[in-house]
Amino acid sequence: MQLMENFSLKSYNTFNVACIARYFSCFENEEQLQDSLDMLNMKNLLILGGGSNILFTKNFDGHVLKNECKGIAVVHEDVDFVYVKAGGGENWHQFVQYCVGRGWGGLENLSLIPGNVGAAPIQNIGAYGVEIKDILWSVEAFHLQERKIKTFSNTDCNFKYRDSVFKSKFKNQFAILSVIFQLRKTPVFSTNYGAISQELERMQVQKLSVIAIADAVINIRRSKLPDPAILGSAGSFFKNPIVEIDICQNLKNKFPEIVFFPAGKNKMKLSAGWLIEQCGWKGIRKGDAGCFDKQALVLVNYGAASGIDIMNLSMGIETSVFYKFGIRLEREVNIL
Ligand code: FAD
Ligand code: EPU
Questions:
Q1: 234 in contact with ligand 1, CB cutoff 6 A
Q2: By CB atoms within 10 Å of each CB, which of 32, 58, 322, 336 scores lowest?
Q3: What range defines the domain where residue 42 resides?
């Protein structure tokens, strides 16, 4: 294991912003993680996956530990399900493709999300009507201070919309080493999210399959989200705000076109993209920081934007959304 000092993280974050880490090392298993922790015994630690949900606004004065724990294996099977364990350092989309290719159902709607398996439970990744909580069986995580492994069941993770214990109560306390998923041998298809059925129709799919759904999701995502290899971003910068039903109704009276979706008992989820677009931000560029022209919820780096430039843009957006709609946007991206 190699310890790097004053290490550039520019190519380790999908916003592609400049940032220097005081120390950087990779770990491939629990033992290597222990060794890395012993080596410096620093308090300021960052477990890094694919860097696709982080915005660095300053250099990181601590130890970045990049998760490279690999491996995919079936650990158990019963009549209906296959239980697949994936290392935290596996690339998420490649793992999804591995499962989709074997006809196992559950992950197909989550195709093409950047990042690694180990980060997926942190914010309970979700897309096109499915969240990781729907198929996650358990998480194996290493407590960075107590130096021991804990297994979290699905319930222990306390998953909510873009949230889990790893983002709240236990924030920065654990390194996720691996995740076990419970996947269906006979898939149950989830095509309720409008755009999926339209895309399947456009693709002239005759027989529904996990591969067809994965391909439809990939097509939709490519049409509206920036490819991190071409344009820097971290996906949605903000969460869609969840509000009481009467707040939503008041807004609808004032703004009849407002976009919202049911979000549980007496709650509605407002489309943050719509709110931002209505404030005139969609496609706006301030230097090299911009609000993406195909999806207003996504902030992008056109080249040389710094983390601070992107933060400043995001604060301008938050202010105008609050001023126009009285809604406070909450960031989805982890700011460092
Ligand atoms: P990182 O950015 O490396 O880390 C994110 C956070 O998790 C950090 O706080 C980090 O410390 C922590 N972390 C990472 N790995 C571990 C670990 N092994 N143990 C403990 N903590 C860890 N998200 C969605 O939910 N749905 C989408 O549809 C979606 N679309 C996106 C589209 C684009 C173009 C981009 C760039 C991002 C998108 N995202 C989406 C956000 C992002 O892909 C996910 O949040 C992803 O899970 C982040 O994975 P990562 O490995 O890159 O995490
Ligand atoms: N909309 C606009 N203008 C915009 C963007 C969206 O009016 O610029 C409205 C449209 O009416 C559109 C609706 O909002 O139909 C929903 O848009 P979209 O399907 O693109 O989804 P989203 O709510 O903007 C969420 C997630 C995405 C996820 C998609 C698909 C959050 C914060 N974002 O976006 O996740 O891929 O749904 O399920 O929940 C991410 O978390 O990084 C991310 C990309």
A1: yes
A2: 58
A3: 4-67
Q: Which of 276, 297, 298, 327 to mutate to test the pocket of ligand 2 (most atoms within 8 A of CB)?
A: 297
- Both 80 and 112 in one domain: the answer is yes
Residue nearest to atom 11 of ligand 1 (CA): 47
Active site residues: 162, 236, 332
Choose one of 195, 224, 253: the last residue of a domain: 224
pLDDT in tens, the chain (336 residues): 799 999 999 999 999 999 999 999 999 999 999 999 998 877 899 999 999 999 999 999 999 999 999 999 999 999 999 999 999 999 999 999 999 999 999 999 999 999 999 999 999 999 999 999 999 999 999 999 999 999 999 999 999 999 999 999 999 999 999 999 999 999 999 998 878 999 999 999 999 999 999 999 999 999 999 999 999 999 999 999 999 999 999 999 999 999 999 998 999 999 999 999 999 999 999 999 999 999 999 999 999 999 999 999 999 999 999 999 999 999 999 999
Same domain, 119 and 189: yes
Residues 290 and 330 grouped into a single domain: yes
